[in-house]
Amino acid sequence: MSDSSFIFKHLSDLLAYLELPMDEKYDLTPSFLLQVPLHYAQKIEKNNPLDPLLLQILPLLEEKKQKSGFTKDPVGDINATQEPGILQKYNSRALVISTCACSLHCRFCFRKHFNYESTEALPNRLDRWLGSHPDVHEIIFSGGDPLFTSPSFFKKLTDSVLKHETVKTIRFHSRLPVTDPDRLEPLLPILKTIPLKKNAILVSHVNHAKELDEKSSALYKTLREARFTLLNQSVLLRGINDTVKALVDLSYKLFSQGVLPYYLHQLDKAEGTSHFEVPDSQAIHLLENIRIELPGYLVPRLVREIANEKSKTPLC
Fold it and tell me: Residue 56: which of 191, 214, 210, 180 has the closest Cα?
């Protein structure tokens, strides 16, 4: 298989490609659909059902289990919505739900139940909203994946922010550098213009060192040369990156590609994700141990997002 744009949408096709048998624990009809780009699948070790990249995207029947404390809106997106697609949780910052689309459907996604609305009118809506909110100094583009959009829509969206002098910083949260970096190529000419006008930040979402490769390294180099600040956030996931070695390896590999670890999130308790949960006591113990192994600038902050709180909550 050589078509770099190919996306696996059927579990049977993905398992065949990875030389894995069907298993009764897999969910063949998940409500949160399977979506895995070929680039990501190529990094999964074949014939290994416990590969840490595979475990992030395999739909399991376990997702259908209900567990107390796990909800459809674990981080309070509904209460934070100012207008469709515009959320504000923290002072001086606003978050924009740029699109419902992602290149990769992670099974632990905290917005897997989010009620996305059409984004066609979002650039004009955001322009008007910022005009009446001069206290907002940073716009955070999220989604879905804000870089998984067409160049024309992306330019309209960013232009609607760039024209406001009150906004000093634009931040993008994206998984594309490691899931499907070729999809970013058409946006690079637009992205490169942003640091000429505003502070520009890319926060990648990388959970395991195996996700990083030559393509991510080249992309990060291009963005650094364009004067982007590059940060990373990870989610602590049971059986995937919940060891000292996995977290240390991730920090070192991120740094080798010019990216600084930023946050290590405790799992957002979205319905159907409880099998990924790592207890707080174990998470704190892990952080204490990676502090011993890493220089301070490579130790991410262990945090949890609590609905309706005015900041992330540090756990240690």
Answer: 210
